[in-house]
């Protein structure tokens, strides 16, 4: 099993969720996060004063999937979240040793 963590632009969330649903991924965790990379933030004007916004709003999606869905899931996220502009985000893939569904005690693929 693999865990995909994707940090994307907030307005792409619904499209990514639909794309993942089309390949059979039904569950995910979503968090509103802030961060920066090469984008480095930007300056804004408030009441005549200019100030720096270092951390930009992003959305982090976490999905645990079976190994055989990994490439499809990555392709779905990349194709859907890409705008071609700086700040489109990143995908991180890690191995998952064990998953347990608390309600039923099911484990691993049965639990996801």
Automatic annotation (TrEMBL):
How does the annotation summarize its subunit structure? Homotrimer.
Family the UniProt entry places it in: Belongs to the P(II) protein family.
* UniProt-recorded name of the protein: Nitrogen regulatory protein P-II
Presence of keyword Nucleotide-binding: yes
Q: Give the GO biological process terms.
A: regulation of nitrogen utilization
The protein's GO terms of the molecular function aspect are: ATP binding; enzyme regulator activity
Pfam families with a match to the protein in the record:
P-II
Question: What organism is the protein native to?
Answer: Ferrimonas balearica (strain DSM 9799 / CCM 4581 / KCTC 23876 / PAT)
Q: Which UniProt keywords apply?
A: Nucleotide-binding, Phosphoprotein, Transcription, Transcription regulation
**Annotated InterPro entries:** N-reg_PII, N-reg_PII-like_a/b, N-reg_PII/ATP_PRibTrfase_C, N-reg_PII_CS, N-reg_PII_urydylation_site
* Record's GO cellular component terms: cytosol
Spell out the PROSITE patterns in the cross-references: PII_GLNB_CTER, PII_GLNB_DOM, PII_GLNB_UMP
List of residues that carry O-UMP-tyrosine: 51
